[in-house]
Amino acid sequence: MALKDYLGNQLLGVLAAYQQQGTVHHVGVVYPRSNNGLRVFIPKGHALTVGALVTLHLDNRTGVDELDAELRVYRTSYKGRVVATDEDWLTLQPIEYMLIHGLQVIEQYREPGYDFPQDTRAENDLPITPLQTLGPIQEREHPNKVGILTTMAISQPHTTVLAFLNTVADDIFLISVPNTFKARQLKRNPHCFFIIDERAKFSFEQAIHWNYTILEMQAYQVPETAPLYEQVRTAFVLKNPWEAGFFLMDGLEMLHLKCQSVVFAGEPQPD
To answer: What is the pLDDT of residue 270?
Structure first.
């Protein structure tokens, strides 16, 4: 089966790429093709050229505001190559992807001759967060249960969808089991990005303007022994109750992403 059979003929996507000015993100409408290539429309424009390597986070959670511990949506971190551009449009061919539903791999692809890039960077424990107390929670993000983390993998960024908690001061809190790909990337380079969107409230049929925020972040660890850990755990579970069971796991890691800059602030929302 093709990606479009799982993801649909039209969906929203978050694209990340390395360019001379640093890591760039674009949000656009994605049209999967029967050959698993993608046509991508980026309303705000782009500077990508033929041959550029990009990563697209794709999932079909549009209109979904209730999730469970297995995250029962189809999702993938699609590594692709730009093969054509036409003004605000891109055409991508796949290099590698793994389509996941719940905890299972449903489909995967690897370009003939492709191998995962070797990453010889040292892994270091993340520094302990300087934050002592949890600030006021950003209540308007309560319906947005998950966001997209971009980590600085070799050759192409990596994207992951994760439950999150955020504050008015743009502090982001995540939890992760040990030795995941994303966790190892952060230990190699704690610089990252986090994208918060309103996909849970969006549908193409209703033609609602889709709002999103892109934050440039630095990752820290929150030790289980710190008072902040329990403060975050309580608020995190109140927002994301399906995640409660993860806090019973040995070795669970709590991450604090501290905002370095707001790349895109979205549109002002009424309180």
So the answer is: 47
Residue 117 in any domain: the answer is no
Query: What is the C-alpha separation between 58 and 13, in angstroms, rounded?
Result: 5
Query: Distance between alpha carbon 225 and the CA centroid of its chain, in Å?
Result: 28
Would 118 be classed as within a structural domain?
no
Let me know if residue 71 belongs to a domain: yes
Retrieve residue 271's tokens.
């309180």
What is the pLDDT of the chain when averaged over all its residues?
Answer: 90
Domain assignment present for residue 168? The answer is yes
Q: Give how many domains the chain has, as a whole number.
A: 1
Of 39, 45, 215, 239, give the one whose Cα is nearest residue 138.
Answer: 239
Please enumerate in sequence order all residues whose Cβ is within 8 A of that of 126, keeping only pairs 6 or more positions apart, or say none: 186, 187, 190, 219, 220, 221, 255
Question: What are the φ/ψ torsions at residue 58 (nearest 5 degrees)?
Answer: -125, 135
User: Domain containing 64 — which CATH number?
Assistant: 2.30.110.10
pTM: 0.92
Write out pLDDT tens, residues 172-206.
999 998 889 999 999 999 999 999 987 666 555 54
The dihedral through the CA atoms of 123, 127, 133, 136 has a sign that is negative
Q: Report the percent of the chain where pLDDT is more than 70.
A: 90
Which domain range does residue 148 map to? 3-106+124-264
pLDDT digits (tens, 9 = 90+) for 18-32: 998 899 999 889 999
Nearest in space to 193 (alpha carbons), one of 30, 12, 27: 27
